[in-house]
Amino acid sequence: MARTETMKPHFLIITDLDGTLLDARTYAWEPAAPALAALKSRGVPVVFCTSKTLAEVVVWAERLGLSGPHIVENGGGIAWPRDLPLPEGVAGEIEEGWTIVPLGAPYDILRAALRDIAFETGCRLSGLGDWTVEELAALTGLPAGEAELARRRRFDEPFRIVGGDEEACGEAVRLSAAKRGLSVARGGRFRHLFGHGGKGAALERLLDLLPCLSGRWLTVGLGDAENDLPMLDVVDIPILVPRPDGTYDPAVSLPGLRRAEKPGPEGWGRAVLSVLAEVIGESANG
């Protein structure tokens, strides 16, 4: 998107985690370290927009030195730093040392709906709430301690279709969920059931809450999967990160969509440094 202002814009990085900033298999982030350092030195905020839980996001925010706010559980809630005042009239709940602004349907509603959808469609569905920590760790490659954090869900139920025609069942499940006012989207590993507007609506809400000195943020979004599409559709500069095999999710198509050259944090870092050089008009390494 062309910018004609001579002043440097206030811009914001919004990013998915698994398969985007983090390696899809190992969860390594280190190849993105130079880009993260460049963003920090320029005061550019980085906002997670992820299917991870608040408990997981707290760990990653501390690990990467990012203060937030962040979007959790595919847009089910906004995690707001407690030292950053919320605008007047916005209600939040204290959790994990952060203020959570709920946007999505409660988890027990989603769990019950998934059972009803399985019965109605005849599809065998297995939700994260059915899995032990050990099973979740085996499915994701997460250490057991981090798999336990992933089970602390409030607004989003990851699930798998077990056996049968996965594509046919996927469509039947989507339609059955829609009848209940719920949505289904694919992430990098699992499908997700949720009862809110997804990552895009949550990002729009966050932008309404987050003050900007120039009056408007220039937004850069990075994701790798279908559940990132609503977020990528909201930002000014959408960037699709390839999957580990180098292919791009065919469900993600937008006018002006850019494509990172490499998967995971390496591609993330290169794409972010390129945008820094383009938008700020200087070498991102300088």
Account of the 3D structure:
By secondary structure, the chain is of the alpha/beta class. Helices cover 35% and strands 19% of the residues. It folds into 2 domains: 11-104 and 198-280, HAD superfamily/HAD-like (Rossmann fold), CATH 3.40.50; 107-194, 2-Layer Sandwich (Threonyl-tRNA Synthetase, Chain A, domain 2). The chain has helices at residues 33-41, 54-64, 107-121, 133-140, 144-150, 166-179, 198-209, 229-234, 264-280, and strands at 11-15, 46-48, 70-72, 77-81, 93-95, 98-102, 125-127, 156-161, 183-186, 191-194, 218-223, 237-240, 258-259. A hairpin with a 4-residue loop joins strand 3 (70-72) and strand 4. Helix 1 (33-41) runs parallel beside helix 9 (264-280), helix 3 (107-121) crosses helix 6 and helix 4 packs across helix 5 (144-150). The protein starts with 10 loop residues before the first strand and ends in a 6-residue tail after the last helix.
Q: Report how far the terminal alpha carbons are from each other.
A: 24 Å
Strand fraction equals 15-25%
Which architecture of the largest domain would the CATH scheme give at its second level?
3-Layer(aba) Sandwich
The strand order across the widest sheet is: 2-1-11-12-13
Helical content stands at 25-40%
The name CATH uses for the topology of the largest domain is: Rossmann fold
CA radius of gyration is 19 Å
* Largest sheet: number of strands, sense, barrel closure: 5 strands, parallel
Count of distinct structural domains: 2
Instruction: Give me the CATH superfamily of the largest domain.
Output: HAD superfamily/HAD-like
Provide mean pLDDT, rounded.
92
- The helix-strand sequence is EHEHEEEEHEHHEHEEHEHEEH
| Number of DSSP helical runs | 9
CATH C-level name of the largest domain? Alpha Beta
Tell me the overall shape. Answer: globular
Low-confidence stretches: 1-7
Secondary structure: number of strands: 13
Alpha-beta classification: alpha/beta
Multimeric status of the protein: single chain
